[in-house]
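user: can you give me the structure for this one chain? tokens are fine.
assistant: on it. calling the predictor now.
[tool input]
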Amino acid sequence: MNLNKLRPDKYLKYLNVTNLFPIKRTKEILSVNPTIIPQRAEATSVNISVYDYNVDTLEELHFSEINKCFPFKANGQNTWINIDGLRKTDVEAICAHFNIHPLMAEDILSINQRPKMDEAENYVFCLLNMLFYNAETFSVEQEQISIILADHVVISFQEDNIRDVFNPVRERLKLATAKVRQRGADFLCYLLLDSIVDNYFLVMEKFGERIEVVEEEVARGNEPRALAHITQLRKELIVLKRNFSPVRELVNGFLRSESNLIEDRHTKYFKDVYDHIVQAIELLENYRDVTVSLQDLHLNNVNLKMNEVMKVMAIVTCLLAPATVIGGIFGMNFENIPWLHTPYGFFGAVALMLLIPIWMLWMFRKRGWF
């Protein structure tokens, strides 16, 4: 026999419990240590989009070098600078040019930051996550975005240069009659926050569809991995809660801000974003209650099936008990046993073994035990 064909490593992995129950996602969700500074990989390419606009004109430009954005500081128009892909030198350079504190640059380059909002004399800074639902892995993916509101300038930093949720804002900017073209940079900042929060509901909608699928699995009771699916749902709810709750504080910071960069007439728009994130948090709590109920229902179904199995086994044991007793009595090594030497003793014993269980079945049925 060729021992090389046995491949023991193929089977030894099943001796490790962590291979049977993958915990990688759990580590991704829970292993967040703010005292450790993670190393962010430098972006291979940087895409810079600049929208320079006023009531009458809109100029859309695209660059790959950060210094091309410098002339848009205090040029008399409103400007949105969107940077896709983060490099340490680029972030530090643009922050230095627009008089942004170096600590804000560190926050922009950080990983797994808690959503927050800070303000200074010449700018307002906020950091939060854009969320996307991965239908293949049934998981919630997040991308950190940082937004700086300065004098007539909004600068946004994104990790990924492939996807975002700002296309509706870009379409609005192209319309001369759009309100964003007639308002200041703080209104543009509101639109960016509103787009991120509104996308949360799209993620929640996909998540709700997944909950319905798992609910059907639990109701049918024929899916062995239902508990694993419920556990996955609860893990993803942790991701959503970790992102939703701080955003409420973030938007509330804009409402309480006394910065001159935020006009009083635009406060009601940030109040609308606040209402949306509160509604998202309430919906999240409803989803959490549903998943807890699903887990309880699944465990109850498992216990019910176990009880059914135990009931059948108990009935079978009871039905076999008379035959066991009768066989034991006539199998004893004594001479003076009734019917032992009669011609019909065997048939009588067998008849008792059959009649007594039949009578027991009738009694069980009469009492409603099964």
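assistant: here you go. Confidence is low (pLDDT under 50) at residues 11-21. Residues 42-302 form a domain with the Beta Polymerase; domain 2 fold (CATH 3.30.460.20).
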